Amino acid sequence: xxxxxxxxxxxxxxxxxxxxxxxxxxxxxxxxxxxxxxxxxxxxxxxxxxxxxxxx
Length: 56
Known about the structure:
Blueprint: E1 11-20, E2 27-37
Antiparallel strand pairs: 1-2
């Protein structure tokens, strides 16, 4: 066991891979994602509609 104290997690993802498409068109979009979110933490990504757009 590691020296890190274990805490309760609200969300835990381990080794997540995700693919889109089928057959020869199948492409991997997520590679070995690990995510732990503790209770009471807000971990939302920014609004996807504004990503990549310049802000004036």
